[in-house]
Design a protein that fits this description.
The complex is a heterodimer. Chain A is an alpha+beta fold. In chain A, 18% of the residues lie in helices and 46% in strands. Chain A has a 13-stranded antiparallel sheet. The longest helix of chain A has 19 residues. The N and C termini of chain A lie far apart (89 Å). By secondary structure, chain B is α+β, with helices and mostly antiparallel strands. Chain B contains 13 helices and eleven strands. Chain B has a six-stranded mixed barrel with strand order 3-4-9-6-8-7. Classes of the chains: A alpha+beta, B alpha+beta. The interface between A and B is medium-sized, with 30 and 26 residues.
Chain lengths: 251, 434
């Protein structure tokens, strides 16, 4: 009788623990939540980005960029305001096309979402609509702590060979599914970049990282810190996401 | 024969005057031949340097469209080229299959963007021969992860032989990747002009950019005869199309010459499989050929001005000669010399003068070319791309020498023609009385 009681208790404990254990399916759900929280569907988004790039060779560069996003239409525009020598340069994305505009040559040239933004450690794709749930699948998930936050640590792998990083590790808060840290790995599984998202701002019913720190893991001492201000979810006129606007704004 | 002797004696009689005229002709001949030799050498050297830097005379690249519409650079339909290239075997001296990695070379806190060619070392003896090693050894290129770096890139990174560098790159589909290389040799950039390429084993490059070990991105052909480049490349384009594969439209010359065209968007029509792009050494040489044409034009202008001045000089000199020799002409006519012999006498003198000047000019040009060809301008100059290992390499062009000599002779004859006619038509009695 005693033996049977012990066996039943053990089975119950096992069942209960499996019921509470986090699964790959949970991870997939969390990826969906991450996308939903950071994508501005049904509303537009604009903010002023202050970008400080630290390079051990080139020193410190400060850039100010006006950012506009229309996620419903797959469009964004990033207009460089400072430094003065770069004023007027812009990155315009319309669906799958990303152009860089240089007011000096008055020409638009195609560029890649995978390229670094203005020589910083941030990629162009860091400023677009997030599609993590479509592009990645969860290969492992575990609970843990990052500082004072309780998190899920997930390893995600790309489902196609066109995303920049084939493997990522992401630290997501258990409450609210906010990404606190990511590690980006190369196709050869070498750590290339670590990103930190220490603070978030609420924009409408969405959350956007207010501060982002991108650390280059290949070049010693190279990192970029981005701070957002003047965050708004007010409608941005469609005319802003056009080549003619980018040209006109420079005149 | 006697007239020729008299003509030679007459030319030698007034040495100073004849020498001055010959010197003017010689200067013109020397200038045009020097510039011509310089531009010929420039074209030859640039062709050779381009061919060496780009790995051949005809370059066949391939691009594919992924389902997402993204274009990736690789030749997947290798069987198309396997069927096409053997058709031109008689014209092909050698071939090279290369892959390319474009990335950020990193050593500690320093980074430098650069291009690394993936090379099948066992098949690139001409490249190995053309590289000028300043440190390390090319014998080590077969070692795993070995890379040959241009000296200026190595200096800029602060890396030494046997040290390891890392390279941040994108695969052909756009994924981030990182490669690790060991520097085994550093080379002098003999091409200048920004052609600072690095070289590594094609298998490792393929692994990094996401290609199979036997795949490649460009198929470079070295022809037996460089004058056949355009013909063979057009035939290759047609043969690829005959195999059912699309070929990228050739860039028009005016677009190729427009530096802004590379920043402008191309209207892309969708295609299936590998779309081939056939470019040639001549596409890169067009700009150089234009510079050379301008130089030749300037030289021809200088030559014509010198010729004009010389023509006027010769014309006036022979008028003076005629006036000085009125009595002499009268005497010669009185003792039986015919009108046509008097004319021939003047014309022979002009020919002797022209040939003497041309000969002096040719000798001067050959001497100056010989000296110039022995000056080593070094490999660090801005113009090293136009040099053959630091030397000018000015060739002797017999065709141009003969042409210039013929032009000079004809123009001199033309200048003297009217004076010779006048002298021939002179009345002997009047001439003797004068």
């Amino acid at each position: 009788m005693k033996k049977r009681l012990v066996l039943v208790s053990m089975m119950l404990i096992l069942l209960m623990s499996s019921a509470f254990a986090v699964s790959i399916a949970d991870g997939e759900r969390i990826l969906g939540e991450i996308d939903e929280l950071s994508n501005f569907e049904g509303t537009d988004f604009s903010a002023l980005m202050s970008m400080i790039s630290e390079d051990p060779e080139d020193g410190i560069d400060k850039t100010t960029v006006q950012q506009f996003r229309d996620d419903d239409a797959d469009k964004f525009l990033m207009l460089i305001q400072e430094p003065l020598v770069q004023k007027g340069q812009g990155y315009l994305m319309i669906e799958d096309n990303l152009w860089f505009y240089d007011p000096e040559s008055r020409n638009f040239s195609h560029t890649s979402m995978n390229d670094q933004f203005n020589g910083s450690d941030a990629n162009n794709s860091d400023f677009t609509e997030s599609s993590t749930a479509d592009d990645y699948e969860v290969t492992s998930i575990e609970e843990g702590k990052l500082g004072k936050y309780e998190i899920y640590l997930m390893v995600i792998e790309a489902t196609n060979d066109e995303v920049t990083y084939p493997t990522q590790k992401i630290w997501v808060t258990r409450k609210g599914s906010l990404v606190l840290k990511t590690e980006d790995y190369s196709a050869g599984n070498r750590l290339m970049r670590t990103s930190y998202y220490p603070s978030y701002a609420k924009a409408g019913d969405k959350y956007i990282p207010k501060k982002m720190i991108f650390v280059d893991e290949l070049i010693e001492g190279k990192k970029t810190t981005i701070t957002l201000s003047d965050i708004s979810v007010k409608d941005v006129p469609d005319t802003i996401f056009t080549k003619s606007y980018v040209e006109r704004v420079n005149n | 024969m006697n007239i020729l002797k008299i003509a030679y004696r007459n030319v030698s009689r007034h040495k100073r005057r004849s020498n001055l005229l010959a010197a003017a002709i010689a200067f013109g001949v020397m200038i045009i031949l020097l510039v011509n030799a310089l531009t010929s050498g420039l074209i030859n050297n640039t062709e050779e340097n381009f061919s060496s830097a780009l790995g051949g005379h005809i370059y066949i690249a391939g691009e594919e469209q992924l389902d997402s519409g993204k274009e990736v650079y690789r030749i997947d339909d290798t069987q198309v080229l396997d069927a096409v290239i053997p058709q031109f075997a008689d014209y092909i001296e050698d071939y090279q299959k290369r892959s390319t990695l474009n990335g950020n070379l990193i050593f500690r806190s320093k980074s430098e963007s650069g291009l690394i060619y993936g090379i099948d070392w066992s098949h690139e003896q001409s490249l190995l021969d053309s590289l000028v090693v300043t440190q390390g050894s090319l014998e080590r290129v077969g070692e795993p992860r070995a890379v040959v770096l241009p000296e200026d890139v190595a200096e800029s990174l602060g890396v030494l032989i046997d040290e390891e560098i890392i390279i941040s790159l994108e695969t052909v589909t756009g994924q981030a990747n990182v490669g690790e290389f060991v520097v085994v040799a550093m080379t002098k950039d003999t091409t200048g002009f920004g052609f600072t390429s690095s070289y590594a084993d094609i298998e490792y490059i393929n692994e990094l950019v996401g290609l199979d070990s036997d795949e490649y991105q460009t198929y470079n052909l070295i022809l037996n005869d460089v004058t056949m480049i355009n013909t063979i490349s057009e035939q290759i384009r047609a043969a690829i199309e005959a195999e059912g594969s699309p070929v990228k439209a050739k860039l028009e010359l005016e677009d190729a010459m427009n530096p802004m065209s590379m920043f402008q968007d191309e209207d892309v029509e969708p295609w299936e499989g590998t779309r081939f792009d056939v470019t040639t050494l001549n596409d890169f040489m067009d700009a150089v050929t234009q510079i050379v044409s301008i130089l030749n034009g300037i030289a021809m202008g200088v030559f014509l001005v010198i010729l004009l001045i010389t023509m006027v000089g010769i014309m006036n000199t022979f008028r003076m000669i005629m006036i000085e020799r009125v009595n002499e002409i009268g005497t010669m006519r009185a003792v039986g010399m015919k009108q046509r012999d008097v004319k021939r006498l003047f014309l022979y003198e002009a020919v002797i003068l022209a040939l003497r000047g041309a000969l002096i000019g040719i000798v001067l040009e050959l001497v100056l070319s010989f000296i110039a060809n022995r000056i080593n301008f070094g490999l660090d100059t801005r113009f090293s791309f136009f040099l053959d290992g630091g030397y000018l390499g000015m060739p002797v062009v017999p065709g141009t020498i003969l042409l210039v000599t013929a032009i000079i002779t004809l123009i001199t004859l033309f200048s003297v023609r009217s004076t010779a006619k006048k002298a021939a038509k002179m009345n002997p009695a009047d001439a003797l009385r004068a």
